[in-house]
Amino acid sequence: MKRRTLLIIIVAAALFGLVVAVAASFLHDGLSSRATPTKFEIMLARNARHLATPASARLAQNPLLVSAEDLRDARLHFADHCAICHANNGGGQTMIGGGLYPKPPDLRLPETQNLTDGELFWIIENGVRFTGMPAFSNSGGHGGMLDSWKLVHFIRHLPHLTATERIEMERYNPKGPDERAEEQQENDFLSGAAPGRKPESQVHHQE
Ligand code: HEC
């Protein structure tokens, strides 16, 4: 058999396999995002993402040296912007994360930790198309490229996150008005303010 014919057969077989895998996935789960992608789908998606990242971006070096101050900045930034999907510890077990397809991976595991700094930076800046992962470059509250590089250092730190660090993050997780009011009441109580005083947000100023 000619080499070209052999190549065509191999490519055709691979495409057929792909179509069957995708069809099976749709037949099984419909278009629900509750489902979990198969290992095969994850492998294909990661390879496609890898190929779509320019080599120069993959090799980019973090311009910041790790410092305790930057790590703390990034940690609180992560609590505010990322933990809603990724959880404070990076494990991805959140209400929003659980409902996404694909789900946010556990950022502490080798699959993420083995990505280069440049790749992590690229993902944070550009997001991942067709997934819930947003692009953060120039998004409100995200202070530009340096913030993304700080986050890269923090992602490297995630496997060693301490309980004290995680508890501090909880104070920076986005909260709804009810939670804020409750917190205010607790603080008032602890600081000995008169009981029954309304939290600041509920006081109507009539001037
Ligand atoms: C709305 C939900 C959401 C938010 C908010 C979010 N992410 Fe993600 N993130 C995802 C999802 C979903 C994926 C998986 C994408 C995929 O499968 O390729 C992901 C993937 C990633 C990855 C790639 C991990 C890997 O191994 O493939 C990194 C790094 C990452 N996110 C960092 C962040 C950082 C840092 C922030 C905050 C600045 C953030 N994410 C905010 C949903 C989110």
What does this structure look like?
This protein has 207 residues and is an all-alpha fold. The chain has a domain at 68-174: Cytochrome Bc1 Complex, Chain D, domain 2, CATH 1.10.760. The protein contains 11 helices and no strands. Helix 4 (68-81) packs across helix 9 (145-157), helix 4 (68-81) packs across helix 10 and helix 8 (117-126) packs across helix 9. The longest helix has 27 residues, at 3-29. The N and C termini lie far apart (91 Å). It binds heme C.
In short:
This protein has 207 residues and is an all-alpha fold.
Bound molecule types: heme C
CATH T-level fold name of the domain at 68-174 = Cytochrome Bc1 Complex, Chain D, domain 2
- Succession of helices and strands: HHHHHHHHHHH
Assembly state here? single chain
What is the overall shape?
Answer: globular
* Portion in strands: under 5%
Nearest-integer average pLDDT: 87
Low-confidence stretches: none
**CATH second-level architecture of the domain at 68-174:** Orthogonal Bundle
- Over the alpha carbons, how many angstroms does the gyration radius reach? 23 Å
Q: Could you tell me the number of beta strands?
A: 0
Give the count of helical stretches. Answer: 11
Find the structural class using helix and strand composition: mainly alpha
Cα-to-Cα separation, first versus last residue: 91 Å
Please outline the major beta sheet.
none
Q: Into which percent range does the helicity of residues fall?
A: 55-70%
What is the CATH first-level class name of the domain at 68-174?
Mainly Alpha
